[in-house]
Amino acid sequence: MTPDLTKALHTANNRLRALARTGFDTAAPSALPGWTRGHVVAHLTNLAAAFTRQAEYAYQGAQIEVYDGGRPARDAAIEAAAHHPPELLLPTLHQSLDTLEATWNRSTPPDWQRPVTYRAGTLEDTALAWWRETEIHTTDLRLTYTPTDWPEAFTTYLTTYLQPRLPHPVSLQGTPTAIAAWLAGRVPPTPVTTTPGTPLPTLNPWP
To answer: In this protein, which residues make up the domain named Mycothiol-dependent maleylpyruvate isomerase metal-binding (predicted)?
Structure first.
């Protein structure tokens, strides 16, 4: 993992820690349909634990499923934890972030190329995925952090990563942040348009 990515992850984690503090209403709606802020926090907490486990096994030259029980178990765990009171849910998030960072800090440069089960990728792929998850879902909390606050490096990376969502080549007009947010399925802060008289395409699933 590059020093720039390491720094970006540390910044994103600290931002999430700062927002998920006392007074945080976990029952308030998030930007995601059907999810409260508690659902978003539960998802990030569980994913941090899952990526920690991916790393622990990778260090041993082994692999394990991201979630025991697959997607159904993942969804059930999010739903169950989302309704926990803030005094339980938020400290659990902070602990998961601390553990993930401590685990990744043990990595040597070659470790980042170790294979993991997550999308049949490498340990570095989980770090990039975590960058996407923290930056995007922190905006989903509908607090003070919005896509307009995304770092330029993240906006550029996300736009490139999400190019496969475009069903065909298309000319998009809009700010880099707006285009990245639209590709991510979020409401862009400013309009995104294409050729006059042509509607924006329906996006493919996430890659």
So the answer is: 13-142
Of the residues 104, 122, 140, the one at which a domain ends: 140
Assess whether 126 and 73 both reside in one domain. yes
DSSP state letter for 173: B
Q: What is the largest CA-CA distance in the chain?
A: 56
**Up-side HSE of residue 117: CA atoms within 13 Å toward CB?**
15
Is residue 39 within a helix (H) or strand (E), and if so which, with residue range? helix 37-59
102 plus 167 within the same structural domain: no
- Domain total of the chain: 2
Q: Is-contact 115 58, C-beta < 8 A?
A: yes
pLDDT at 21: 86
Alpha helices in 60-151 (DSSP H): 70-82, 86-104, 123-140
Judge if 165 and 129 occupy the same domain: no
CA angle, residues 101, 2, 159, in degrees to nearest 5: 95
In this prediction, residues 181-205 reach a mean pLDDT of: 95
Single pTM value for the model: 0.96
Q: Which domain holds residue 156?
A: 146-207
Residue 158 parent element (H or E):
helix 152-161
Residue type, 204: N
